[in-house]
Amino acid sequence: MKLRYGIIGAGAIGGYYGGRLAQHGADIHFLYHSEYEQVKNNGLRVDSVNGDFHLTDMNVYAHSEDMPKCDVVIVALKTTQSDKVASLVKPLLKEGSHILLVQNGLGYEEELAKELPDYYIGGGLAFICSSRIAPGHILHADYGALTVAWYKSKKNEDVANQIKTDFEQAEVPYTTGDDLNFFRWRKLVWNIPYNGLAVALMATTEEIMKNPSTRQLAADMMKEVVTAARACGAMIKDSFIDRMLENTEKMKPYAPSMRLDFDNHRPMEIQAIYSNPIQIAKAAGVEMPKVEMLEQQLRFIESREIANSGK
Amino acid sequence: MKLRYGIIGAGAIGGYYGGRLAQHGADIHFLYHSEYEQVKNNGLRVDSVNGDFHLTDMNVYAHSEDMPKCDVVIVALKTTQSDKVASLVKPLLKEGSHILLVQNGLGYEEELAKELPDYYIGGGLAFICSSRIAPGHILHADYGALTVAWYKSKKNEDVANQIKTDFEQAEVPYTTGDDLNFFRWRKLVWNIPYNGLAVALMATTEEIMKNPSTRQLAADMMKEVVTAARACGAMIKDSFIDRMLENTEKMKPYAPSMRLDFDNHRPMEIQAIYSNPIQIAKAAGVEMPKVEMLEQQLRFIESREIANSGK
Fold this sequence. Notes:
2 copies of one chain form a homodimer. By secondary structure, chain A is an alpha/beta fold. The first copy, chain A, has 12 helices and 10 strands. The first copy, chain A, has 2 domains: 4-178, NAD(P)-binding Rossmann-like Domain (Rossmann fold, 3-Layer(aba) Sandwich), CATH 3.40.50; 182-309, N-(1-d-carboxylethyl)-l-norvaline Dehydrogenase, domain 2 (Orthogonal Bundle), CATH 1.10.1040. In chain A, strand 7, helix 4 (108-115) and strand 8 (120-134) form a beta-alpha-beta unit. The longest helix of chain A is centred in the middle third of the chain and has 21 residues, at 180-200.
C-alpha cells in the first residue's frame, strides 16, 4: 500500500519528519508559507544527528487548495494556529483520510473531531530537539522518536500500519498505543513544569533542577499533573515523576520550546499546555493551583510582550 | 511620664518615626551603622509629605553597648537581620523595658520572647511609603500610620499609653489593638501577593492589577492567606480581600519593599513574608500552594542574585 502524505506546517518538526519520509521515497506534499520560495528554489536542508540530507525537487505548495487529496495529513503547526487547522486540512481530505496532529498540549483532537467528524484523527507526540535555523534549513540536534495514538482508537488498520512502516523505513523510532489521552497527559508531566518555568524564571532546565526550591516546584507541579491525569482516566504512575526528574537532571541544559518561542517573539502555547489541561482537570473535579499560577504568570508575560512589541 | 527611646535600625522606617519623636521633644537615642559619621556630623534630613524637617545635635551611637538603658527599644531593622536583634537590644534593656519590632512578616515576636523572656515585646506595623535616598536623608512619600499590639497582650499600661501619646504628639497616626497575630496576618494579605510578584514578574502593583490573570492571582493568594490566617486564629473577613484589591487599584504605581530590596541588591525578606507564614499555616493544617510557589520562585531568584553578585 502506497500512501500519499500531506504536511501542513513544515517547520522544525513537520519539516524533519516529512523530510525523512521523502528522503526514503514516500509520496510527500509540503505546504509552506513564508519559506515557500526558498524551498521551491533551493529545497530543504536538514542537519541531523542521524545524518544530514538535502532534498530538492520536492512537492511544495503555497496554498493547501492546490494540494492533492492525501491518505495522511500530518499537521505540525504550533497550537497557537489551531483555529486554522480545519480549513487548511479540508482541501486534502478524501474518504478514509487520516489526520495526525503532531502538536503539544491537550484537547485539539477532540476539537478537530467535532469539526471534521468523518475522518480519522490521531495525536502524534514528538520527542525531538529540532529547530529551524534559516528558511529551508532545519537543525535536528537530538532524539527524534514519534508516538502515535488515534482519537477514540478509530483508524483504518491497514493505513495505520503502513504509516508505521513508512516511518520505520525512514529511520524514525515510531511507537503506537491505544490511549491517546494517556500519552497526551504523560507528555504534559514534563511539558507543564519546564516550558513555563523556563519563561517565567528565564532559566534552563539545568538551572531549575540545580536549585532545591525550583526542583521541588517542578516535582510539585508534576504531582499536580499526575493527580489531574488520573482523574481524567490517564493512570500515570508516581514513579514516572521520579523518572522525569532524573532524566531532566541528566539532560544537557535545555531551553524548552516555549522558551524558544518567547525568545524569538513568537506566540507561546499557553492555551495548549496550560489553559486546556487546567480546564479539563477542573471539569474532572481537580485543581492544579501551582500549574494555574504558572498559567496566570505566563498570561501576564504574554500581554507585556504584546504591549512591548507594539511600541 | 517621660520615656527614653532607643532606635535600633534608623533607616527609612526607624529613622522616620524616631526622627518625628525627636522633632517633638522625645528623649531618643539612635543606633547607626554605615550612616554613623554622616548623621553625627550633619544630622538627619527628612523630606516628608507632612512637612520637611532637619534634626541636628542628635544622640547617635555606633555601637549599642554605648547606648543608655531605655524604656522603649524600637527595632526597625529588616527581618533579614533578625538573628542580630537580641544581642543588639540587650545592652539597652532594664527592668520593664518594652521592645517594639517594627518589621514585616510573622513569627519574630515569638522568637524574641524566647530569647528575652523578661521583657515586654510588641509588634509594630508601619503603613508608610518611606525610603532612604542618601546617607542621613529620608524621603517620606506617603501614608505613615503605625499599628501596635503587644505579644500575648503583655505590657505596662502606663508605658504603652505614654508611647501612644508620644507618637500622637509627633503627629504619627497610631492605632493599638490586642491581637498581634491578627494584625500580622492581616498585613500579610497585602504583603504576600504584591511583594513577591513585583520581583518574580518585575512588575509594579499597577501592572499586576491591570492584567486580569495576575489580578486574579493576587486575589487567589489573598484568599489562601485569609484561609491560613483563620486556621491560625486571625479571623479576617472576606470583604478585606476586596478592600485590599480596590485600594491597590487606586494606588499610584508602587514598588513594594521587596522589589526595592531586590533592585538595590539587598537581601529579600523571604523568610519573614513567605517561609514563616507557610510553615505556621502548615502547622495549623493549611496549605497555601500559590504562596508556596512564589516562595520557591523567590528562593531561585535570590540564589541567582547571590551567584551573579559573586562574579
